[in-house]
Structure formats: C-alpha cells, structure tokens
Amino acid sequence: MHPTRRPLTRRHLLGATAAAGVTGLATGCDPDRPAGGTAVSDDAPALDPASWDSVRAQFALDRSRAHLATFVFAPHPAPVRAAVATHRAGLDRDASGYLAANEERLDRAVLAAAAGHLGARSDHIALTDSTTMGLGLLYGAIRLRPGDEVLTTEHDFYATHESLRLRAERDGVTVRRARLYRDAATAGADEMVAGLTAALTPRTRVVALTWVHSSTGVKLPVRRLAEAVRERSPEALLCLDAVHGFGADASTPEQLGCDVLVSGCHKWLLGPRGTGLVWAAERAWARMTPVIPSFDGRDIGRWLAGGTGGQPVPPGPAHTPGGYHSFEHRWALADAFAFHRRIGPARVAERTRELAGRLKEGLAGIRGVRLVTPRAADLSAGVVCCEVPGVPVGEAVNRLWSAGVVASSTPYRPSYLRFGATIANGEQDVEAALRAVRTLA
Predict the structure, then answer these.
(1) Domain 122-341 falls in which CATH fold?
(2) Is pTM, for the whole model, over 0.90?
C-alpha cells in the first residue's frame, strides 16, 4: 500500500487471510459495550446504575472482608471481566486472526471512550500500561535546553522523582523540589499556591505535580496552581500525575488547567489492570519527541517507503508505545469507561467523597488516632491516611487484615496507614474499618 493512501495497519502486516477466519467474532456492537465482540457470560446481576448496592454487586470481591485498598490495584467490575474474557477467548482461538480483524476498531473504541471521559480529542491521547510508564515517557519526551529547569515537589511519588532523576542524569537538566505544605492535615490552598509560586523561576519549563498525594491524601488546588504557573512562568508546562484523582474526581483536563495529564486506569477508574493513558494539550505535544516507536500504520508506512512521504501521525498515536500488548485488557478499557458513564462520573465522585468523609470523621473521632488527610472535601479525594501512635504501620495493616479489613501503608517516609473506599465499597466497609481501628488505638 502506498503510504499516502489509506493508513497501513497491523492487519496488513499480519495478512488479510488471517483475518478472514475470525470476522464473525467481531460483529455487532452494543453501545454500552463499545469494545464489541461476542460476550462471555458473567454471573453478576444486571446493573442498576442508580443503586449503589447494585454497583457494588458488580465486583466479585470476597465479602467476608472490607476491601479498602481496591484503589491500589483494582478488581474488575462485571462488564470489564466479561470484555476481558471475550477478547481472551478470541485471541486464544486465533491470536493473529483476532488481532488483525479487530485491533483497529477496538483501539478506536478505547480512544473514543477515553476522550469522552476526559472531554478531549482522541488523537491527543496516548495509551500506556501504567502511570509509571506514562511518567517515564513524558519526562523522557519533553525537549529541554541547557539551563532549563524542572520543578517538582517533595510530596511526589517515586515514579515522578525517579523519572526526573534519570532525565537529569542523562542530559544534565536541573530538577528542583518545592515544599507545598508543612502539615498535611492543616494544608490550605493559599499555602500551596504560595509554596509553588515562590519556587518558580524564569528558567522553569516543566512543573511536575501530583493531583492527589498518595502519601497523605492531600488533593492539590490544581486550577489555582495552573493559573500561578501561567502568570509567573508562562512557558512552563504543568504536568500532572492524576492517578488518584482520575475516576475519583470528575474534573477534566480543561477544568484543571493542566497541560499534561498522566494516569493509570486500574486504580479509581477500576479499569483493566495494566492500562493507562497520557493526555496532552497541543502546545505540550508540540514540545515532545516520542521515546518508543509506535506501531501506528502511518509510521510503519513511512518506514516501508524508505522514510519519505506518508501522512502525519497525530501526537497521541505517535507517542503510544508500539509492540504487542495485553490486548484483552487494553480493549476492555472501553467497557470500564462505559461502566462509569452509565453510573455518571459526577455521581461516582460524589459517592467517593461521601465514603471518604465517613472515614475521615470516624477516624478523627477515635481517641489516639491522628487523621493525616485534610477534612475539607475540596482538599482531599478518596485517599484517607491516619496514624496510630505506638503502632508501626506494618503491624497495623497486619492486625487489620486479621480483623477482616484490607488496608495499605503509604510507600513514603514517614509511612501512614491508608484507606480508600471506591464504588466497590459500601458504608458497611467503612464501619468495619472503624471498628477494627478502634482495637488498634
């Protein structure tokens, strides 16, 4: 195929004859299941999106425990389980044929669903396997000149700090860290804006922030921070690790005011494990060079033509790493977005705030327990952290497990006891956690 005509796809590389035998597996497409395919049955009851009990019943969790760490590594809801099983069955029956017949359509469905959720253009979205992969790609892709600075914070996670350290080691980029707040429990928006503004300089070209800190549960006032960056360092790109806000908060990139948003989809979105995305605005993509070759047909077509001609590749596909992936999970991502769409992202966010509020109020009322997460709803999302003085965090997690409550510890210094109630949880899980914590204090 001439590269200036219809884009080459992996189907052409695999061969049209391989696709012929499996086209029957990919006919039809339920609008509430945009991933398509022949559905594999699941024993979950039909979803009533207006009922939180019905939503909760979509998850095959062991209900003898209160699972308050589902946001760390999510269980799949019934529609996602069914989609994964459908695609896995097709791939197991004829891997090359199923891929050739379905990849282009299913990739488009995933990108369209992600774009709808983000209120963005689908060709501005790159697909990844995790937040960490997205951050590594982002901070490796941004073009910086000698003397340019990257500003991050003391509160960011290992993945951001390490991505930036590796970048600095590779080409000498200056990376600095700001402190946004002294005490998470009393952190305020004015304090955080002042802390970031004071650290900005005329040489700042990238500001690397995290929407919700998994260390403390603090949610940044991203819009105000973005406005401060625009005013003080207008050339800087505000890049956001959004993984603990994505799915827990309904704000879109436009509402946040960020230039880049990176997130895994297997945390608060409760999407397929091993999926993620990077969204960037036009001005941000224009300052990046892809790190890993894509398998977009236009790129491959240009290569086959000896590096000449061909159609321009939009930034999202150009920055999507090529190669083979866990396609049954990637394609089921469309069903995860559809699941949230049926419930309503705003309702999901409201439910998350409600359960987090119950946790915070309950923990704050237990004598001997120190709540670390801000109680203000606008400065926190779903992550709730606390400290039980005299009880090491690892011991607390183990004792809660023995009491039937699944919690986690924050992988930071200092480390705190951490809970998070997703839409897979109910009030009964929160109450079980509070009862168990009372035995620790």
Answers:
(1) Aspartate Aminotransferase; domain 2 (3.40.640)
(2) yes
Alpha-helix residue ranges (DSSP H) falling in 320-374: 327-343, 345-364
The whole-angstrom separation of Cα 234 and Cα 230 is: 4
Exposure on the CB side of residue 65, measured as CA atoms within 13 A: 15
More confident residue, 33 or 45: 45
Integer-rounded Cα Rg, in Å, for the chain is 23
Long-range contacts of 6-9 (CB under 8 A, 24+ apart): 7/296, 7/297, 7/298, 7/301, 7/311, 8/297, 8/298, 8/300, 8/301, 8/304, 9/103, 9/104, 9/297
pLDDT at 13: 45
Give the amino acid at 143: R
Q: Where are the domains of the chain?
A: 122-341, 345-438
Integer CA distances (angstroms), 232 to 181, 283, 376, in order? 20, 18, 28
In this predicted model, what pLDDT tens digit does every residue of 127-143 receive, in sequence order? 999 999 999 999 999 99
How far, in Å, CA of 401 to CA of 103, rounded? 42
